[in-house]
Amino acid sequence: MRALSLISLTLLLPAAIVAQETPTERESARDVVHKLDSLERSLDLNALVAKLTGPDAARDQVVARAKQLMETELLAMGDDITRHPEVGFQEKRSVQILTDYLKKHDFTVQMGTPNLPTAFVATYTKSSGGPHLGVITEYDALRGTKGAFHGDQHSTQGPIGIAAAIAISEYLTKTKTPGTVVVFGAPGEEMMPPNAKTVMFESKVFDGMDVLMRSHSSSATSRPAPGFGTCCMNIDGVKFTFSGAPAHQLTAWNGRNALTAVVHLFENIDAMRSNMRPETRIQGVITEGGAAPNVVPDRTAADFYVRYPDEVYLEQVSKMVDDAARAAALATGTKVKIDHYGQNRDGVGVGSLNEVAFAYMKKFGATGIAPEPGKPQGYEETGSVSSAIPGIGFSAKTSNAPNHTYEMEQDALGAVGHQGFVVDAQAMAALLFDFATRPDYRATVKREFDTIRALHTQYVEDLKKTYVVPKVSEP
Prior knowledge:
The protein is of the alpha/beta class.
């Protein structure tokens, strides 16, 4: 789902990063940005990274175990899932493979969560107590014109997360270290909005977790800047259904053409783009366009994702798109139904997690290093989770191709994919070890996360003062 972008941001010294993506955000919310930058400086992330990633025999054993599991069993599992793609909410075979393996390694599995039969929650049985360590896995394939395909490499996200989860779980048992490890199976990530994780979050599936981790395919080894997330930009999902009246095309005046209406919708949106801020992204497809060329189409539909880096201006853009649909209906004598069927909001990026994870990926041999942080983002595409629970997404290079391509699917089966997958598993295992064994590190992560989260309300209010809707006078 991620629309990967490695937009470099200006670095501040010594380790703080410019907080937010757009110039408008940085200028309008400059007090918030200043506080974010001051927070990152106070954390002394360079020193934190050096301390955590230095020599540690116990950590290295956990990392070695994750690597062993990947190389002996779990890369093959990922390849198998790649070759048998299943689209969102139909991933029965993939889920069976993942949960059977977890059961063999002392996890109890609860199948399904409210309204999501292909979700699961797997809890390690031989350790307990805090901290509570969560690993999110995905396994759905993309919907393509040639059928389902793993052009986003979700096929190996499960094996990566499982390798890290088993490695840290075994360490907790062996050393009698307190900790609870839970693996979450999140279906249908490519079917959002709403994201399945939002549904799981609202069902309280993630309650009690102290940290959540996941991996994701990437064409470069990267990490985000800290701050309020704009990974994939905030998204409103909206469907427009136009209703007209049928007629013979030779006497089309006897009908009302719903296809003309949906075409006008696209034209109206294109005409408005110059009046929208340049970071706006609007993507749509016609899902129904009529049935026969000799009959005036009396029903058509279009599905849109409306995106913007912050939720404040997104509200304005969404209204403009809705009005474009109403105008198209009015111009063609048709009627339109507007269905806002879901939304995603990006979350909180945590530098004390992101920078350590990035250092581990480099330590374990990641390639294609993007030296500067990308734009701020939560650890996955829905802020409902990453705005409530601190977390991290690992992005070692796993492909020479962009996301959502057939070439990325092929790379999942080859050397570049396999190397990156192993790196992600090792880095995740290392970070889980640090979080489980170092109370001081957990406190640092919590302090940073809570501070960033608390600043979000002021940030939204500052942006509302900037995004003033122009006043249009009566003619």
